[in-house]
Amino acid sequence: MDTGRTPHLTARLQGIGTTIFTEVSALALRSGAVNLGQGFPDFDPPADLADAARRAIADGHNQYAPGPGIPTLRAAVAGHATRHFGLSYDPDHEVTVTTGATEAMFATIQALVDVGDEVVLFEPAYDVYPAAVAMAGGRARGVPLGPDADGVWRFDPEALRRAVGPRTRAIVLNSPHNPCGKVYDRDELEVIADVATAADVVVITDEVYEHLVYGDAVHVPIASLPGMHQRTVRISSAGKTFSVTGWKVGWVCAPAPLTQAIRAAKQWVTFTSGTPFQHAVADALTWGETYTAPLATSFAARAARLSGALADLGFAVHRTDGTYFVTVDVRPLGFADDVDFCARLPLEVGVAAIPVSVFFDDPADGRGYVRFAFCKTDELLDVGIARLQDRLHGMSRSLPPGRT
Ligand code: PMP
Ligand code: GLN
Questions:
Q1: I need a surface site. Which of 169, 170, 244, 333 has the fewest CB within 10 A?
Q2: How confident is the model at residue 76 (pLDDT cuts 50, 70, 90)?
Q3: Pocket of ligand 1 (CB under 6 A)
């Protein structure tokens, strides 16, 4: 949120500021608020997974893993992509293990984006993307999403076509989408695929919520569309699927020539990471639908619990088809500004949430939208909901001086 000049910081990083997740979680801690801001579960991962990590440590898997990741995890990632999505990757030359999806994104952008290149991002954009583009010396070009009459966030295909130009190197696609809870449907993916193919650009996908998809929504990796495998870099991680956001085991799947470039960058970032966790995740990725189907059902119930309560309170609640998150418009309740709302909510109500306008290049495009996380136990959600019910009406509606 802080966009002032930072001493010592390079010109290319000026204005990027502190990530909103750090700011809001610190505020939640200081104020004793229920943290429905940063997306992390307040419950334990599956016991078998935790046991597998402990076993890997006891079995002596404690030294550097090979740079691209341990072979069993690379094979498990490839097997998972085939079993769930019909995608085919060679574990030796097309799968690379990373320190979370975050490093996968950073290394991919370092590898593919030259100084002055442009990268198209759908906005609101997860804040890692513009930061990674800026660190590579590239330029982000935003394509805004906005909620339609049914509360589904959509983009204008013309705006996408306009955003792609001769300097465009890549389009970043995050589906299921953080913060919007949007799962891009096949028609939308076909538009993106057509634009990428016509312009001959790479699509970098962030699919960390691939198994958190609700109701009738279906997650379709864009790599599965005709002709797209060869130009798609597919990123995911274990954090969300297995409720282990602190483990930071991620991966990137891409055709061999793209993988070669990404590995060339990745080796200089972390070289390798988390050997025992890699062993544990390799095991878990083979669990299949018997694990992922109930996982999605349990998260759909959490989504319904929080979305229903927010609607009863009078927020305009957008549809969430996936992820950890639901977005609302706070303006129907008389609040003008999401940033101000989220700065005061922890202090005055005891709940933390994330302002969505900070994920836009032009914050005016997202003004009034707020993201709540529902990746929490029912008990914690209920405490948050009760606080909102008791205290929201008492919150001041007027903006502080200087914000209009
Ligand atoms: N992409 C998206 C869309 C996310 O929401 C997150 C945050 N959990 C990440 C990437 C980061 O993933 P990881 O923790 O595996 O680096
Ligand atoms: N992905 C998490 C979220 O959107 C946050 C991860 C982080 O703190 N960087 O809430």
A1: 333
A2: very high
A3: 39, 100-102, 126, 174, 178, 206, 208, 237, 239, 245, 248, 250
Q: Which of 330, 324, 337, 296 is nearest to 310 (CA)?
A: 330
Residues 6+ apart with CB under 8 A from 129: 105, 109, 119, 121, 140, 172, 174, 206
Closest ligand to Cα 37: 2
Q: How far is the CA of 250 from the centre of ligand 2 (A)?
A: 14
Task: Report the SS3 class of residue 97.
Answer: strand
d(CA 25, CA 34): 10
Provide the whole-model pTM. Answer: 0.96
Find the 92 Cα to ligand 2 centroid distance in Å: 30
Ligand 2 pocket mutation pick from 16, 19, 22, 40 by most atoms within 8 angstroms of CB = 40
Q: In this predicted model, what pLDDT tens digit does every residue of 95-151 receive, in sequence order?
A: 999 999 999 999 999 999 999 999 999 999 999 999 999 999 999 999 999 999 999
**Residue 404: is its pLDDT beyond 70?**
no
**In this structure, is the dihedral angle defined by the CA atoms of residues 100, 303, 36 and 357, taken in order, positive or negative?**
positive
Give the model's pLDDT for residue 375. 98
Q: Is 317 helix (H, G, I), strand (E, B) or coil?
A: strand
* Residue 50 phi, psi dihedral angles, 5° rounding: -60, -40
Residue 219 near residue 247, CB atoms below 8 Å = no
Contact in structure between 177 and 323 (CB atoms under 8 Å): yes
For residue 104, give the ligand 1 atom closest to its CA: 16
